[in-house]
Amino acid sequence: PVNLKGRSFLTLMDFTPEEIRYMLDLSHDLKSKKRAGIHNELLKGKNIVLLFEKTSTRTRCAFEVAALDEGAHVTFLDSNSSQMGKKESLEDTAKVLGRFYDGIEYRGYKQSVVEDLAKYSGVPVWNGLTDVDHPTQILADLMTIEEHVAKPLNKVKVVFVGDTRNNMSYAWMYGCAKLGMHYVAYGPKELWPEKEVMDKVQEVAKETGAVIEVSDNIECVKGADVIYTDVWVSMGEEDKLAERVRLLTPYRVTMDMLNATGNKDVIFMHCLPSFHDFETKVAKEAKEKMGLDVREVTDEVFRSRHSVVFDEAENRMHTIKAVMVATL
Ligand code: CP
Ligand code: NVA
């Protein structure tokens, strides 16, 4: 039987397929319980701290609502309002927080920070996004696929379009490798996954039967069940905007791309936030000041019947709840 009590959730690479299955089953279960108005206070009396060095809407709110739903108390800290990383070392911060809290969420830059928090705090640490991973998002995405695609996950083909070297792409590679899925990184060669990451996932794929591929040819979308994309410039690399627009414009997700899958029921997914129009300050300024069209997906696709992005966003909460319940 699976028992995750006391474990940290830093990357899906640390978990067996059975453990990931367990977290997904628990997520579906907690979602139906919430829908039915059943609250069992599974985290009653627990204290949780949320550390954010990058901004967030979904992840922060998902942790807060999930914790409060189950009777836990949360503290939110960002780098402006705590000593973290400025007046106090990471090691000391982790040791202090471990004395106060039952679990720690961290969003920021380096993966080594979540690893060190786990090493020094002595309590479960959950990765709320780093430069190279975003594992809680993948749990929500897998859950959403199970709700919308009538196939077991190991028969599902996911095509990740765009910056296939970013945290979302890597997190997807880990999830697909572990669960024996078919993953295609579709984007320009300049932004393909690094060799070390490729080698690491191919090792896992050998055991699970997963297929992990890269391509810059539109033919690769044929037969896709999921077309997934993310912003072209991730948090922390804003200076790369012009270069990314140049490299990635051919990979904007359009209705033509969805049609090229040949699957009339293909679903469109996106972790969000998204630039699908020019309504945001960033997209508008890029257009007006630099003449750059930063849309990674058209508004038509984003609002189409294929798009499941808001179910996906909701599922962040149910899956994050499952991770906290399982590890606490
Ligand atoms: N998808 C996601 O992590 O969203 P936030 O940046 O709003 O948390
Ligand atoms: N790749 C994006 C994901 C945001 C949820 C970023 O890191 O900014």
Automatic annotation (TrEMBL):
Catalytic activity: carbamoyl phosphate + L-ornithine = L-citrulline + phosphate + H(+)
UniProt-annotated location(s): Cytoplasm
Domain Aspartate/ornithine carbamoyltransferase carbamoyl-P binding: 7-147
Keywords: Cytoplasm, Transferase
Binding-site list for L-ornithine: 167, 230, 234-235
Molecular function (Gene Ontology), one example: ornithine carbamoyltransferase activity
Domain Aspartate/ornithine carbamoyltransferase Asp/Orn-binding positions: 155-326
EC number in record: 2.1.3.3
Gene3D superfamilies documented for this protein: Aspartate/ornithine carbamoyltransferase
Any GO BP: citrulline biosynthetic process
Record: residues binding carbamoyl phosphate: 56-59, 83, 107, 134-137, 271-272, 316
One annotated Gene Ontology cellular component of this protein: cytoplasm
UniProt xrefs under PROSITE patterns: CARBAMOYLTRANSFERASE
Enzyme's top EC category: transferase
Family annotation (HAMAP family): OTCase (MF_01109)
Similarity comment: family membership: Belongs to the aspartate/ornithine carbamoyltransferase superfamily. OTCase family.
Primary role: Reversibly catalyzes the transfer of the carbamoyl group from carbamoyl phosphate (CP) to the N(epsilon) atom of ornithine (ORN) to produce L-citrulline.
Protein name per its UniProtKB record: Ornithine carbamoyltransferase
Organism of this sequence: Caloramator quimbayensis
